[in-house]
């Protein structure tokens, strides 16, 4: 899922214009699961904004709404009425959600209340870790299901680097060395021979380096 | 400042602080009259927005009173509450409201006197800080309390 993090209230106050009607708009999908922009966070941030408005005399009128998905027009439609009534929208969706709302409501300023961080999973309660860098051409099958691009700090396709210490990453000692994990995993599934193959430099044109990506499925187009 | 002009909401866990408040009543111990006690099944039930909403709606201080650490009826409800209070205090500071207006304390069911001391301390803090800048909306709370 997409993992995001709340911007500080101070940042939000700097962003939002004074004396405005603000809709705090949550998203019920990924950002709900990573506890950054779901219904509960909407309630907390809206409350904090109202407190800040009264304490600092900022003149906000804050309303709240959470829709199922901010990146889908069918669900965005459900927010249309609430959005029409306000001056600005503070979206607690991911970067895609913010842009989808902005594209749909041409005359309405839409601000991002979250910093969208990465594609990851809940590793422990209250702790999310990055698992996929969306490079556009997946190599997971070669590395026992552990992504060296995302999880090795040096993105090495022919690791390890030699700097890891006691299975810890040299760059982030609080994180495991991805290459240690890859070795253990390949050993466990009897595929250590994969490491004998030298991987050529990766083709990065499928990543964001090749410009914004589009997927077209002709079989689904009308 | 007249403490009748302020309101403190005290969220009290039924297994400790609420029982302690009850005991305080039986012992005829006096505490400040501006405290409104809300009984909760466990402080772990309290969400961040409970504290924010209380302050937003005009409370001048919020006291969260849970069991002593290690003796929560639900094992770790009070520890969850401790982290939530810390998070809410950070939000308050960022919002421009004094974070001292929200505080968590731990008392046992037999701790009538400690609870009263905590309430008095909170009342003193609120008196020092003055009425909440948000408490225009709080007029309704106080009027309701008078009825």
* SSE run of chain A: EHEHHEHHEHEEEHH
Instruction: Note poorly predicted spans of chain A.
Output: none
C-alpha-based Rg of chain B, rounded:
14 Å
**How much helicity do the residues of chain A have?**
25-40%
Largest interface: A-B, 15 and 16 residues
The CATH superfamily of the largest domain in chain A is known as Response regulator
The total beta strand count of chain B reads 4
- Alpha carbon gyration radius of chain A: 22 Å
Q: How many helix segments of chain A?
A: 8
How would a crystallographer describe the biggest sheet of chain B? 4 strands, parallel
The secondary structure category of chain A is alpha/beta
Your description of this structure?
The complex is a heterodimer of chains A (222) and B (147). Chain A is of the alpha/beta class. Helix content of chain A is 28%, strand content 19%. Chain A contains 8 helices and 7 strands, in the order E-H-E-H-H-E-H-H-E-H-E-E-E-H-H. Chain A has a 4-stranded parallel beta sheet with strand order 3-2-4-5, sandwiched between helices. A 3-stranded antiparallel beta sheet of chain A has the order 1-6-7. Chain A starts with a strand and ends in a 34-residue tail after the last helix. Chain B is α/β, with parallel strands linked by helices. Chain B has one domain (3-137): Rossmann fold (3-Layer(aba) Sandwich), CATH 3.40.50. Chain B has 5 helices and 4 strands, in the order βαβαβαβαα. Chain B has helices spanning 17-26, 48-56, 77-95, 112-129, 138-146; strands at 8-13, 35-40, 61-66, 102-106. In chain B, strands 2-1-3-4 form a 4-stranded parallel beta sheet, with helices on both faces. The two termini of chain B are 23 Å apart. Residues 140-147 of chain B have low confidence and may be disordered. The interface between A and B is medium-sized, with 15 and 16 residues.
């Amino acid at each position: 899922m997409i993992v995001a993090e709340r911007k500080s209230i101070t940042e939000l106050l700097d962003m939002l214009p004074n004396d405005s009607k603000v809709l705090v708009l949550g998203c019920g999908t990924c950002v709900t699961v990573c506890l950054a922009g779901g219904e509960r966070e909407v309630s907390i941030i809206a409350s904090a904004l109202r407190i800040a408005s009264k304490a600092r005399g900022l003149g906000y009128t804050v309303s709240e709404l959470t829709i199922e998905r901010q990146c889908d027009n069918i669900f965005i439609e459900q927010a249309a009425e609430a959005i029409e009534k306000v001056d600005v929208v503070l979206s607690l969706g991911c970067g895609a959600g913010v842009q989808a709302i902005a594209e749909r409501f041409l005359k309405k300023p839409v601000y991002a209340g979250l910093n969208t961080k990465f594609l990851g999973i809940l590793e422990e309660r209250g702790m999310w870790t990055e698992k996929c860098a969306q490079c556009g051409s997946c190599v997971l099958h070669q590395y026992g299901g552990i992504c060296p691009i995302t999880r090795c700090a040096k993105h090495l396709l022919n690791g390890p680097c030699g700097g890891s210490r006691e299975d810890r990453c040299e760059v982030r000692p609080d994180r495991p060395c991805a290459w240690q994990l890859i070795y253990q995993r390949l050993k466990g599934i009897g595929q250590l021979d994969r490491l004998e193959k030298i991987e050529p430099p990766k083709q990065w044109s499928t990543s964001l380096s090749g410009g914004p990506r589009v997927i077209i499925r002709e079989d689904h187009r009308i | 400042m007249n403490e009748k002009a302020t309101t403190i909401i005290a969220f009290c866990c039924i297994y400790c602080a609420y029982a302690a408040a009850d005991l305080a009543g039986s012992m005829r111990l006096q505490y400040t009259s501006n405290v409104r006690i809300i009984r909760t099944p466990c402080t772990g039930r309290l969400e961040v927005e409970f504290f924010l909403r209380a302050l937003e709606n005009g409370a001048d201080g919020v006291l969260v009173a849970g069991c002593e650490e290690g003796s929560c009826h639900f094992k770790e409800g009070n520890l969850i509450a401790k982290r939530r209070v810390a998070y809410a205090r950070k939000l308050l500071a960022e919002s421009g409201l004094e974070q001292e207006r929200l505080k968590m304390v731990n008392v046992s069911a037999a701790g009538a006197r400690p609870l009263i001391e905590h309430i008095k301390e909170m009342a003193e803090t609120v008196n020092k800080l003055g009425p909440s800048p948000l408490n225009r909306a709080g007029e309704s709370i106080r009027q309701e309390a008078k009825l």
